[in-house]
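Sequence only, no structure available. Ideas?
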Amino acid sequence: MSKRILFIVSNAKFIGPDNRKTGVFLDEVAHPYVEFEDAGYQIDFASLTGEVPHLDNMQAKDEASNARFLKEAGWEKMQHNSKLSEVDVSIYNAIFVPGGLAPMVDMPENELLKEVIAETYERKAIVGAVCHGPVSLLNVKLSDGTFLLKDKNITSFTNEEENNYARADVPFALESALTEQGAKFHAAAPWSDHSIADDNLVTGQNPASARGTAQKMIALLEA
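Reply:
I predicted one. Tokens follow.
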């Protein structure tokens, strides 16, 4: 049977005191989708509310993987996503959280999302996230009461990158928050391709890292 991947996406469309328009960053959902599809995996989408998510960075819609995602089944699946509370996540071999600023709005505290991530990680399925997607890992506690992030080697959108992108719009600095819960944070040069696998947890730094994050997840799934 082919491996099954569940993308969990944000429903937020605005962020910050000036209601900056946001959503799921196109490259961060499209590039991994294409990688998983080419690996022959079954891909499904869930969101916290089940509503249609918004896409950010549509100016890149003609890039090859982005165009394929938009014109083929990917965007159609994402629009018709399932509400996370109605999904049996235990049937999936991996879950993946793409970024964009949107996850900073609805994912830091969502209790169901935290439970899903903890359960997925503890049954040794793969947990992946890229850019602002690792905000989903905040406040995830394992069955022994420790934070999932404690002593994990991870990356995400960095403070340096945020300071030159959306610092006035985000509620907190993601790199700092992840570190405060015990993560061993690894930053590469701003906007460079950088992803890390630590056991069955895979994280990527920014949009340029989305494809590499998926490739590391595939390597683990095929091992």
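The helical segments are 26-38, 64-71, 73-79, 103-106, 111-122, 159-163, 174-180, 210-222.
Hope that gets you unstuck.
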